[in-house]
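lol ok so funny story. i was supposed to be doing the assay writeup but got distracted and ended up predicting the structure for this chain instead. priorities right. anyway since i did it might as well share w the group, maybe its usefull for someone
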Amino acid sequence: MTARTGLLPFWKNYDRKLYLKAAILADELGYDSFWIPEAWGYEIFSLLTEIAVHTKQIKLGTGIVNCFSRSPGLLAMNAATVDEISEGRFILGLGTSGQRVIEGFHAREFKKPLTQLRDVIRVTKTLLSGKRLNESGAKLHDYRPFELAMKPLRADVPIYVAALKQQSITSIGELADGWIPTFWPYNKLDRGHAWIAEGAAKAGRNPSEIVTAPFTTVIPLGDAGVREARQIIAFYIGGMGDYYKELLGSFGYADECKRVDDLYRDKTTRSRAPDAVSDEMIEVLTIAGDPKHCIAELQRRREYGIDLPILNLPSNLPWPMIELFIRTMAPAS
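and the output, tada:
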């Protein structure tokens, strides 16, 4: 059986027509899934609907949609609608986002994010299965006995969760169908898998049925790819708040993160931050080098429990370069 691989464009400077073309090509080449991000640009379910009507087999996922800006009931409606239009190819990828985006852009209170996330999963599963909303077991609201005024195509639309912390990952084992880790060292995935198993045990589920689908940075550009990997890692450590510093620090990279962060925070030394990224960090967080190495390494890493690597598409490049990447990393390569 061909190993499954997904694709994900970057949300910033999103080129709608270019990535529609990318999704069509990915469909033709046998990719498992095409995921769309959402921040404060394009609206995610409209983009997926457009892709759905132009593709035939490829699965379509939100990668990811936050659990605050839409009500749990609306997210269930979104999932049911896109799943029907795509003829059963939809995956609901969820996350909490952060306080700055939820309160500063969406004007929603960022309160009890894990409980909110769990409520969205419960409400979505309840409504898709044809049950009444007051049966969902949600904790934050007292729902009335609504049910969807349409028959969902599937009662079991897969729900994946992007999570980095223990409680959230344990909840995946209890309630969700897939885990989307980001910038998690591939050789340390067993820690997350153990937490998923804990949650699965609580719910009487088989943890092996829960998909591990990490967002994966692959740069098949030889030495230039290694340089680009250094820049990406430095940005995540120095420019993305404390999430990734805390995560990587817990895996033994606290000293390296501090060196990178100190350089990145000072604009006069920011250009030197990538040089402080160690070779080991490049190896565990990205796949960089010549194309043959990247293809072989992606396959090797599946042995660590990666079921569905979701490859980040190159950003701010013309179509010929995007097409080359998609063809190079295609499942049959």
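The radius of gyration is 20 Å. The longest strand covers residues 90-95.
back to the writeup now i swear
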